[in-house]
Amino acid sequence: MVALLARGDCLRLSNSSACTAFVPSSIPVRGSVPCLKSQEDELGAISPVDDEYYKHDAGGYYTDDAPRAPEGMSPSLNNVTLCGRIGFIDQPVSLGNGNKALRLSIATSDVSMSVLFNSLKRGRMGAVRTSWHKVVIYGQGNVDYIQSRARVGELALVVGALSYYTPQTPEGMPYRAKIAEIAVRQRWSGHTFILMPRTAQSGDDYANHPIDGVSDSYGNP
C-alpha cells in the first residue's frame, strides 16, 4: 500500500517525486465569473490553488487576457459574414474623394430544421428559402478586382459591416424606409471579398438587372 508522508507544506507520495503544494492566497473575486482562490475552511485546512487563473502577482485578476472596454462603456461589434452566390453586379461609380464604389447582391439559402426533417423522411429535399443581400464594395483595387473577375453565379465570401442608406426616386424624393447593406471598406481591418469560382459551368438563374425606379446613393467609406 502506498503511504502518504507529510513534509511541511507538501503532501508527497512515497513512490513518486511529484509534490503538490498548498499555499494561502488573498486574490479577490472580480467580474461575473468568480476566480478560484485558496481559502481556509472552518477546520483550518488550506485548499489548493489553480495557477491557470493567475498570470501576475498583484490582485484584481480577470480569468483571461481579453481586452476590456473602458469603465462605463459597453463593448460593441458590427461584423457580418456572408457566403453565397453573386446575383447582380452593378456598374462602378466614382466618389467625390477620388475613390470608387460598386454594389452587388449575394444570395444565401437555408432550410428550416422542421422542413428538412419531414422532407428527409419522405426521401426528398425540402423547400429552400433564398435571401438576397445588398453588398457595397469600396476601394479602387477592390472594384477593379470584382469587375475583372467576378461573374454572376459564382460563390463569394464577404466580410463587412452592416450599414443603412435611404434610396431616392427618379424625382429625387427619398423613400421613407432605409435599406440595409453590407459595406466592405478598404481601410477597415478584417473586411474582405473573396471569389470562389465554380469548377463546372452551368446555367445562371440569377437576375442581372438593377431595380427599376430606385437610384442608390453611395456614402464615403
UniProtKB/TrEMBL annotation:
Q: Which UniProt keywords apply?
A: DNA-binding
Q: Matching InterPro entries, A to Z?
A: NA-bd_OB-fold, Primosome_PriB/ssb
| One Pfam short name | SSB
SUPFAM superfamilies (alphabetical): Nucleic acid-binding proteins
One GO term in the molecular function aspect is: single-stranded DNA binding
Tell me if Cytoplasm is a UniProt keyword of this record: no
Q: What is this protein called?
A: Single-stranded DNA-binding protein
What does the record give as the organism's lineage? Eukaryota, Sar, Alveolata, Apicomplexa, Aconoidasida
